[in-house]
Amino acid sequence: MITVFGQSYAWNAPEILIIGAAGVTLIALLILILRAANRAGNSAQPVMNEIAWMSHRVQALSEGQERLSGGLSHVSEAQAASQVSMLKLMEARLADVQRQMTEALHGSSTRTARSLGELHQRLETIDKAQENIENLSGNILSLQDILANKQTRGAFGEIQLHDIVSKALPADSYTMQATLSNGRRADCLVHLPKPPGPIVIDAKFPLESYEALRRADTPRQSHEAAQLLRQALRAHIRAISERYILEGETADGALMFLPSEAVYAELHANFPELVREGFAARVWIVSPTTCMATLNTMRAVLKDARMREQAGAIRKELSLLSQDVDRLGARVVNLDRHFQMAARDIEEIRISSDKAGKRARRLDNFDFEELAPDAAVTAPALPVGDAGQS
Fold it and tell me: At 40, is the pLDDT very low, low, confident or very high (cuts 50, 70, 90)?
């Protein structure tokens, strides 16, 4: 750095280079002049003139340097002002950018917090769903354990049958685990009127043979499983027909309840001969859906039977109702006659009231002349002691 007229400039600045070049040129000219003076000592006057001219040029150069310094000072001030304005503009821009970044960060943090909250809720929902799935898995395992045992599987069918019957029929129209005269205990006995009479519903669940049929991979396995299913269902049909169809005690038929729609569909789709054998043995196979429809029909039969039982009481009540209607008609006639008499009495009272009002107005106006003829006319008709009354 170098200082010129109070201003600091770099060594390679254009101003310093110009001043340096001018100084070098001036020094070179002085050397040339001195050499010329040594060679021609007799010609001093031209040298002096040249020196004067050089002095004038140096002064002009000095003035130009001063003007250049002033211009440089002005340029420096303008540059400083420009730097200050640029700094202010940059500070404003930085402040704006900082504000925008702060708002963006705040909004981002808010959205992040909201997203984290929603994520937390979804995780809680997923945890609950996972817990429900685990509970359902446990229930499925429990159901598999129940169905794996014949006794528990039978209890499962009985419970399902009881649930369906209790929803379809009145409580006094059936008996669960009813004992018949032959000592056999039926899962459900519906007390239908005769005919047809009480009908038995027995729950059966041939699960092993059905699962073997579903697991069969070869035609031979399928044939063997189908034979097992036929044997199981034929045994159930024969047992129900022999145990729960009793002459004079139960209806001429019974229902076999299959607590599985899949087994029922498989039976009707691929084993229609078993359905026909059940018809022949008067054992009708029902699923949960068809059992509900059958029970609704039984409910209509029970309702009709109870209405027939109450037909006598209904006829008696209708007779009493007819007598009550006749008495009501007679009383209405009497009431109408009383109303007519009361209307006639009211009309007569109104006429007497009008006459009394007229007489009162005449007396109030001292209109005795108009009153005298009426008195003369009406006086003979009045009994003794009743004068002035009407």
Answer: low
